[in-house]
Amino acid sequence: MAAGQSEAACPKFAASQKLDPGMGTKFRLAECYEKVGKTASAWALFLEIGDEARSTKRPEREEIARTRAAALAPKLARMNILVAPASASLPGLVVLRDGTTLDSAISGVALPVDPGEHVLRATAPGKIAWESKPVVAQPSKTVEVTVPALEDQPRVAVATITPPDSPAIERRSLVPLVLLGGVAVVTAAFGGIMLGLSGGKANDANAQAASLKGARCVAPPGTNTNAACTTLVNTAKSADSLHNAGVGMFVGAGVLGAAAITYLLLPPRVAKKPSTTGLRATPVVGPDGAALLVSGSF
Fold this sequence. Notes:
Helix content is 46%, strand content 19%. The chain is an alpha+beta fold and 298 residues long. A 4-stranded antiparallel β-sheet has the order 3-2-6-7, with no helix packed on it. The model has no long low-confidence stretch (mean pLDDT 82).
């Protein structure tokens, strides 16, 4: 500040006062504010120093501080903030000046402010926030600002969205499953019987072959002159036919069983609903205007 760099000195004095408060530092900060034109801030600090000096019984400092404050008083610019009755009666009303909340008692009171631009803001539940940036340019003048009646926040009509109905699931009939499974079981049972009969015939053919004691029999049966050979050939042929029939029935039973399992594992069918179309118009009102929201299903 001694080098004339008051703009750079003020923040340093303020930081020093915050870290290690002292009457001397506060006095230098008040002087710095006066040099950069922040007359209201300087005036308020000089008054604080005067009160502090009185409480600590330091009359010399009190006199100096109050003299400096008195010299600044005629130069002070002031701001008179008026709150409209409609806003003053609002519950939860908050009025801020430069981010500092103002007590409701200051309405209509001209308070000292530093020259320059200030930010006024008023808020209340359910109301649109109001903001103004008045500029205090001339010393010894009072700027009057009125906080108007706050406007209600807009009510927005929102269309209710109904979730689509869950698709209806059709349960599959169990009749095909029962029929396929039943036929597969019966077919497998008959196949087992056929194979059992085939085994019995094969045993008979072996016994008949043993009784021939090495005689050779040829097919077809009619070419054999030996009656025992004819019987043996017929028995062997019957055993082979029964065996093939039994195997075929087991294969058929397997196919039917696979069909039953496939039917069981098929996904359920969704019932079809008749298609519907329609339109719905909903008004939407906002801070910047109004619109018409059109929705529909096709």
